[in-house]
Amino acid sequence: MSDVQTAPASGAGTLNQKLDNFFKITERGSSVRQELIAGLTTFLAMVYSVIVVPNMLGAAGFDQGAVFIATCVVAAFGSLLMGLWVNLPMAIGCAISLTAFTAFSLVLGQGVSIPVALGAVFLMGVVFTLITVTGVRQWILNNLPAGIAHGTGIGIGLFLLLIAANGVGLIIKNPHDGLPVTLGAFTSFPVIMSLLGLAAIIGLEKLKVPGGILMVIVAISVLGLIFDPGVTFHGVFALPSIENSLFGTMDIMGAMSPVVLPAVLALVMTAIFDATGTIRAVAGQAGLLDDKGQIINGGKALTADSVSSIVAGATGGAPAAVYIESAAGTAAGGKTGLTAALVGALFLVLIFLAPLSYLVPGYATAPALMYVGLLMLSNVAKLDFEDFVDALAGLVCAVFIVLSSNIVTGIMLGFATLVIGRLFSKEVSKLNLGTVLIAIALVIFYAGGWAL
User: Fold this and answer.
1) How far is the C-alpha of 356 from the C-alpha of 427, rounded, in Å?
2) Which residues form the signal peptide (predicted)?
3) At what angle do helices 298-315 and 261-286 cross, to 10 degrees?
4) pLDDT digit string, tens, across residues 139-182
5) Residue 205 lies in a domain
6) Which of 143, 153, 279, 392 could form a disulfide with 379 if both were Cys (CB 3.0 to 4.6 A apart)?
7) How far apart are CA 433 and CA 143, in angstroms?
8) Gap between the Cα atoms of 151 and 145, Å rounded
């Protein structure tokens, strides 16, 4: 009898040990339970993408059912690759900003057909991957000055705060003359839930309650189901529709036309700095840097998100990238690839459980994103104000990421400020050739009007 009773525990112990050994969980100061909680937290923070991406591409004429499946497949592939191969807690999915460019600029704006647009995404992924595997992207990462590296983290933190606050209506576009944003409906249910949720997360994290962020997301989702008419139960299971599938419909030759090729290059250039900056910021926030300040398994991480864009073009999705929302999982304790692998597995399951994605309203995950944004502001303390030019260039990068709502814009202005600042401060000796070349390339990219 005792053998029967202890068998499950023994089996569970063996599985935990295998996971621990494979993902180096104990070595990185985590636990299987903590990694699973982090994975679920990240998944819930980014599950909105399976609604937003199909809606955006649907407005451009894509079949929404086909895009839903493609979005899940891209997120599953990219996150599993990041988890099982790279062993980092970063989830990958169809990038919202690049989705918007594909739908509204490429298809609706330039009149490019859907197959050609998918060919452009595929081609962008191929070029992006070539740049990554040849070491160019790692070279860019290695030549990221300390101030701009920390400034990117600060800026992304501010950006997350703005995205979350705007998403729930706390901060809205100003309909009157003056500054571009203003306070929204402070007494609305989404805003109240978001602010209460943020305060609850801060309190629970102070007490180091395991899974505190996830608990708040689930609790607010339940309250939304009870009190918010907009949150309704649509069922649990739904067979995916394979009608009008976009798998393999890309037109690569069409994407090589002189009309489309500049858009492909713009996508590549944007992804290089946007996704690279995000990976660096999330890794830094999770403490996953080596003693030289470089990302652990950084080369593999960069390859994983670029390869995912190839899959996106082939399956009918939008360009892929590491999601900023991954920081919600690292804030919940995720330190290994088990976090990302769970996200990937859940996106595979979601293909058959699509109705459940509507049970997590935006104001349930907004508190987690706000909390992560606040945590990332701690990068200010890492700026070395003894090196005044470097520190201030980092702050320029941070501020203009949020003011322009564009990570690459902030990075470009940060690099330009650093190089010019070094010249005027007579600190040319502190510049290296890589930093100067990156600054020139970014300025030309913007001055030429190719920036997204």
Assistant:
1) 57
2) none
3) 140
4) 988 888 999 999 999 999 999 899 999 999 999 999 998 899 99
5) no
6) 153
7) 9
8) 10
Q: Are 276 and 407 in contact (CB under 8 A)?
A: no
Neighbouring-strand partners of residue 68: none
Kindly state whether residue 211 falls inside one of the protein's structural domains: no
- For the chain, the average pLDDT equals 92
CA distance 215 to 200: 10
Place of tokens 């955006």: 56
Residue type present at position 43: F
Contact 66, 314 (CB under 8 A): no
CA dist., res. 439 & res. 447, Å (int): 12
Residue-level pLDDT at 4:
44
| 253 occurs within a structural domain | yes
Dist CA 283 CA 290 (whole Å): 10
As for how many domains the chain has, the answer is: 1
Average pLDDT over residues 401-425: 95
- Measured distance CA(267)–CA(316) in Å, rounded: 16
Both tokens of 229, joined, read 């008419």
Q: Is 142 exposed, middle or buried (0-12, 13-18, 19+ CB in 10 A)?
A: middle
pLDDT at 82 (0 to 100)? 98
- SS3 sequence of 411-451: HHHHHHHHHHHHHHCCCHHHCCHHHHHHHHHHHHHHHCCCC
153, 278 contact by CB (below 8 A): no
Its domain, for residue 420, covers 28-162+231-447
Phi and psi at residue 239, in whole multiples of 5°? -70, 130
φ/ψ of residue 171, rounded to 5: -120, 125
Q: Are 328 and 369 in contact (CB under 8 A)?
A: yes
d(CA 320, CA 317): 8
The DSSP bridge partners found for residue 320 are 94
